[in-house]
Amino acid sequence: MSEFALEVRSVSKTFGTKPAVKSVSFGARTGEITGFLGPNGAGKTTTLRMALGIIAPDSGSVRLFGAEPTARAFDRVGFLPEERGVYRKMTARQIITLFGRLKGMPARQARTRALELLERFSLGDAADKKIKELSKGMAQKVQILSAIVHQPDFIILDEPFSGLDPVNQGVLEAMIREQADAGATILFSTHVMQHAERLCDRIVLMARGEKVFDGRVEEALAVVPRQVDLGVDPGQELTALLSPFGAVSRAGTDSEGMAIWRVVLNGKSTPQDLLKACVDAGIALSRFEPLRPHLHDAFVQLVSDPADTLAERA
Ligand SMILES: Nc1ncnc2c1ncn2[C@@H]1O[C@H](COP(=O)(O)OP(=O)(O)OP(=O)(O)O)[C@@H](O)[C@H]1O
Known about the structure:
Structural class: alpha/beta
Radius of gyration: 24 Å
Strand order of the largest sheet: 5-6-7-3-8-9
Bound molecules: adenosine-5'-triphosphate
Distance between the termini: 52 Å
Number of strands: 13
């Protein structure tokens, strides 16, 4: 089995004079969940379309399951495109069955699996309803089920969470996990960092048409400066003591009336250094709380335009 379900090698695409994707390379490792992240217009959808052969790259190449993509290899892929919409006059079950048939499933098997999926994802009652009679979120779920009906080895979902309510976002997260546990490789794009943080083994981050990060979620989190909150008597002034460790600010007062100070640690200092300094100085701490970094902070840090940062500093 190939190490990668998908390898994208130095692909570029320019629309008119505007480069949308600039020499991007990454891989979706077999058996892993990879998040494809980036702000609006970063080039995610264009890259996914090139990966699937929907549009041709200007340069670069794509490998599927370790080889040149073929129609047979594409049959092993399930894809949810960014544009939503399926035939509105067909029923939910007919649509899912049709997608199964298009991927080579025998008719009876496709029909049975369609019903099975609809029931498992709480759409059993909607099986024989036309898409136009369903809510937007329900129709989207039908489209997601259409992408997985043939039990693909590799599932690519472009913004699968957008348009779903929080309950259905949870259902989709569980479904993605279930598919991964069953052995599928997953690649999905999203703007919502919480989904990526909960689900992904790895993330690939795009900004301005380029890849700006590719690695494990923990590695992305490691770029976020550590923060520590300390609670002390409101009369205490900690700026001079804590400044050598990072940027110090007052972050409010807690419910017991204690002052909360926040330190964004510089690269050289650890929470332990901070604690030691407080203990050595005889400071009575009511709270010492290293804050857990979130992917959102890593995202902001990694996609911030170096030119903007320089402008801010000037
Ligand atoms: N068919 C097209 N014709 C012209 N420009 C396009 C086309 N498709 C995409 N672009 C441009 O390419 C850039 C990247 O778009 P793309 O849709 O790949 O970004 P994205 O990261 O998926 O964004 P979003 O998160 O908003 O969907 C954008 O500037 C977009 O306007």
